[in-house]
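Hi D.,

Good news: the full-assembly prediction came through. Inputs first.
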Amino acid sequence: MSDTCSRCNGSGQISCPGCGGRGTKTLNEGYNKSRVVSCAGCDGSGRTSCGSCGGSGNK
Ligand SMILES: [Zn+2]
Ligand SMILES: [Zn+2]
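Then the structure:
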């Protein structure tokens, strides 16, 4: 019997904390200027490996 990771519910992946799961980030570049870029932390997918279980889904 394996212990399912409670942080990712066994999926091994969690929403990226860097972009909140959106996969993009908005950079402010000054007054009334902003740019949307891919999040580097998740490569634009919005999801990243769970740090609690290392992406395995189990503890
Ligand atoms: Zn991200
Ligand atoms: Zn996990």
